[in-house]
């Protein structure tokens, strides 16, 4: 089944250069993904940071031409292809400084074909992680420290309700209620960012 996809309203908003909040939300989710993809290709930190900026400059220049109804794939797949192509361009410049650029590009595409299938899967998994991180940062302010600890320690770190209850001087039932409250708020934020995520499996 297709994984979560960036909500359409955000894609529309980032086409408008005046929508700075929407662009910042977009960058918050996707910047770490592109950076880790570059580092996974063996690109050094400073160069990876520069490539991230190149990728987002390319997105800004082309986003108005992206049509989710075109049948050409998801936005995330489109972004992955932009990132991949810019990274191959970078690797080509590093490995082949003179001439035969087209030949070297084809060779690199062939060499990285299987690897990029795996990279695309990791890109999708990292996206889900970033959406969760973003949602958690948004939801955290709504809860007391005890409520958040009840959720985080049982739902993320895997501690038992009984142990957390003893540490926080609450009942196991109260811990489970607190966890459910936080999860409900997290789902609201995930749904805001990614409407398909709640029905997606895996």
CATH architectural designation of the largest domain: Orthogonal Bundle
- The proportion of residues forming helix, as a percent range, comes to over 70%
Strand proportion, as a percent range, falls in under 5%
**What is the C-alpha radius of gyration, as a whole number of Å?**
21 Å
Number of helices: 9
| Total of domains | 2
Q: Unreliable segments (pLDDT under 50, ≥5 consecutive)?
A: 1-7, 97-101, 196-202
What is the approximate shape?
Answer: elongated
SS class = mainly alpha
> Please, what is the average pLDDT?
77
Largest sheet: none
Number of strands: 0
User: In the CATH hierarchy, what is the superfamily of the largest domain?
Assistant: RNA polymerase sigma factor, region 2, helix turn helix motif
Organism: Blastopirellula marina
InterPro entries: RNA_pol_sigma-70-like, RNA_pol_sigma-70_dom, RNA_pol_sigma70_r2, RNA_pol_sigma_r2
GO biological process, one term: DNA-templated transcription initiation
GO molecular function: DNA binding; sigma factor activity
């Amino acid at each position: 089944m297709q994984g979560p996809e960036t909500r359409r309203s955000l894609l529309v908003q980032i086409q408008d250069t005046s929508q700075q909040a929407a662009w910042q939300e977009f960058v918050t989710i996707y910047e770490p993904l592109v950076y880790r993809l570059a580092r996974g290709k063996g690109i050094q930190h400073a160069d990876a940071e520069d490539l991230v900026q190149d990728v987002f400059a390319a997105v800004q220049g082309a986003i108005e031409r992206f049509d989710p109804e075109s049948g050409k794939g998801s936005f995330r797949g489109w972004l992955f292809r932009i990132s991949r192509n810019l990274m191959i361009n970078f690797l080509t410049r590093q490995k082949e400084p003179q001439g035969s650029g087209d030949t070297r590009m084809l060779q690199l595409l062939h060499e990285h074909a299987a690897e990029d299938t795996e990279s695309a899967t990791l890109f999708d998994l990292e996206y889900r992680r970033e959406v969760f991180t973003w949602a958690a940062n948004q939801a955290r302010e709504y809860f007391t420290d005890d409520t958040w600890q009840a959720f985080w320690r049982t739902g993320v770190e895997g501690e038992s309700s009984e142990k957390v209850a003893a540490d926080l001087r609450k009942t196991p039932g109260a811990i489970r209620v607190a966890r459910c409250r936080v999860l409900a708020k997290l789902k609201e934020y995930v749904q805001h960012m990614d409407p398909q995520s709640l029905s997606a499996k895996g």
